[in-house]
Write a structure and sequence with these properties.
The structure is a single chain. By secondary structure, the protein is of the alpha+beta class. The chain has a four-stranded mixed sheet with strand order 1-2-3-4, sandwiched between helices. Strand 2 and strand 3 form a beta hairpin.
């Protein structure tokens, strides 16, 4: 699946700001299901989900989409993943810094 414009924006900013922290895109995290994280730092089980369509009734805002997101997040929690959700407006240095700091802290433990 081709990355969305928001995913590309996040990826460019991340690589520019944190080239030393490797993120995998479209990481499949649960066997037997098609669930994938938009981005994942595998050693610390940190995932980043870019949620587009916030203001236009996108997939995440429908009943079926929301139910699927809940199932995905619950399965991720059972496997001890930390999942950050970012809307397009949240793809900023502030949130990238917060996520990078969380990854660094998780690596230190």
């Amino acid at each position: 699946m081709a990355p969305s414009q928001l995913e590309l924006q996040f990826s460019w900013l991340w690589v520019d700001r944190y080239p030393e922290i490797d993120l995998h895109s479209e990481h499949k995290f649960y066997e037997g299901r098609k669930f994938r994280f938009d981005f994942a730092h595998l050693p610390t089980k940190t995932a980043i989900e870019i949620d587009g369509g916030t203001w236009i009734k996108g997939r995440h805002n429908t009943g079926t989409g929301y139910a699927g997101d809940c199932e995905k997040l619950n399965l991720a929690a059972l496997d001890r993943w930390v999942v950050f959700h970012l809307t397009g407006d949240m793809i900023t240095n502030k949130w990238l810094d917060t996520i990078a700091e969380s990854i660094r802290e998780a690596k230190a433990t």
